[in-house]
Amino acid sequence: MFSIRLHRARKAAGLSLRDLGERVRVSHTAIKKYEDGIAMPSSDILIRLSRALNLRTEYFFRPEPVALEGIEYRKCSSLPKKRLDAITHEVIDQIERRIELENLFPQPPVNAFTTVAGLDSSITAMDQIEEVAERVREAWELGFDPIPDLIDVLETHGIRVFMIDADADNKFDGLAARVAGMPIVVVGRHWPGDRQRFTLAHELGHLMLEGRLSDDQNEEMACDRFAGAFLFPRASVLQEMGEHRNAIELKELGLLKEEFGLSMSGILYRARDLGIISPVYRDEQAKLFRIKGWRFKEPGRDYPTEKAHIFEQLVFHALAEEYIGESKAAELMNMSLIQFRRVRAMESTEEPPRAAVNQ
User: Fold this and answer.
1) What is the CATH number for 3?
2) Considering the domain boundaries, does residue 43 fall inside one?
């Protein structure tokens, strides 16, 4: 087990055998023996390995590593493999800590994911996707109001959401996979909230539309349509914007974005899809957005980033019920015991280190 974890951590850090050996002050041959399971490092070398790879020593001795099933990266083809390996490693580390924590509870603390009943079994037109999104909102009792906390909604219905520090990677747009049948979705921790929310809703679309699209339907376009319809449902769009418009003010788009957490561009797509504005007008606005540079940074304030609380709540729940002690809680949150005690006592107003919280 140690050998697998060391190999994976080294690859994720983008280090060669020789690079890691130099940092730890052992030969690259010794590192190779550790990774092949031929030898085990002494305690002092183990500590140096942990520091070189920026990991706690407990990482190397966790139970069987998780396997990501059906992994789908939402990325550009130019994203370097080394960076993709690092992203994958960060995701797996978070998932392992999450699963280990959930397994400490006598009863599962989070519901299992199930597809909403009554969805169309064969979707041959984009308009049907509006009905699928409405059916999901109805089954989850969301009504037609804005969803203020999308991560909590998904977590409540069995979809684990993880956040990573991929903020510098505009080429990375998210990741979806399953672990032991459990669906997971990954987004950037500090992306603008509307980008996070659209990615999350898009991945929900993949789960709800799986096996339902006819062969001539583009799955990514279908999931984009679902995401827009789920975040800003048809009834709300018509109420807010009317049934027909010749033009839409930029400020109006900004206000709707603040209310529903869908980008200004996304709102224009919704208006076009529902026949409120013409395709020509939408295309004209898209051209303006390109010229102004608003495709990557829309005018006005960013929509607030999503916040995930489930993992921390479960840690303190387990601590309160004495399923774990302080040392284990600190390990799960990937922080020192001193740091954890300050957080537990609410003596620090600072957020825990980003690596500490898995969501």
Assistant:
1) 1.10.260.40
2) yes
